[in-house]
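As noted in the main text, all predictions were made from sequence alone. Below is one such record, for Probable 2-(5''-triphosphoribosyl)-3'-dephosphocoenzyme-A synthase.
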Amino acid sequence: MIKTTTTTPTLTTISRLAQQSLLVEVSLAPKPGLVDPFSAGAHHDMDYDLFLTSIQAWSPYLKLYLKLGVASTDLTKLFDSLRRAGAQAERMMLTATDHVNTHKGANFSYAVLLGALGWCLQTTSLADLATQDFAPVFAAVQTMTAGITAADFKDVSTKTNLSYGEQLYVDFGVTGIRGEAEAGYPALQALALPWLRAHGELPATRRYLELMLYLIAELEDVNILHRGGLTALTQVQAYAKDLRAQTWPDMATLVRALQAFDAQMISWHLSPGGTADLLALAIFFDQLATSPLTAV
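Prediction:
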């Protein structure tokens, strides 16, 4: 592999964009059933301040994920290194939040995607990656995570205490974030990023809110499945699709519709946490694609 030079300031800037995407996502409002600055959504154990504390605690690892990718010579070994670093980041998160899980899924996704991005930057400029809609990054994730679902769930039938991800796999065959990674994040490649490119004329806040609504309507959100099963998922998707069929003449109309959706999600005790993670990742790649870094 012929390496190009990736400077530390570049990695610092990319990692700051990654942290910023997490902050933009949690600060976006209103978000149905999710934490934002004005609502805890359908949560009783977390709020906006806790999310800020969590991001502050584990986001220093974002740059480490990039550096591991830049330094790696083997994708399988890179994934092992990223999992070890990710476990450390998760411990930092749980310590800061008094063991409330605010970002476990996001931490996994940022680890593998930033590690893959660092790997690709060995041979390809950020500008070229952006021109390719970051397809080489998603391909690298596919390669490094191949077989993860089968490996992680191989003993699930004999275990007595299952994580909720394992329980969803047993109940519904849902592979969750592992399956998404193994497939190269198709929800990002085929849904979120194309939608953002097609709606670049919208102001940023409205664009991200409408993307969120689109993702709620389309995603098999594991957090909703965990809380309410397939019936709840169908119910939430139908509500989101009904809203998307409407038109909003101005931002105020959209905000009122989302506030009503939030109240409904709270009454159902449902939160689309999988959507939130994907939204943050989409914001990251969206802002990375338009960063001055992609001009060189």
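The mean pLDDT is 93. The chain has one domain: 8-199+280-295. These features were considered when defining construct boundaries for the mutagenesis experiments described in Section 2.9.
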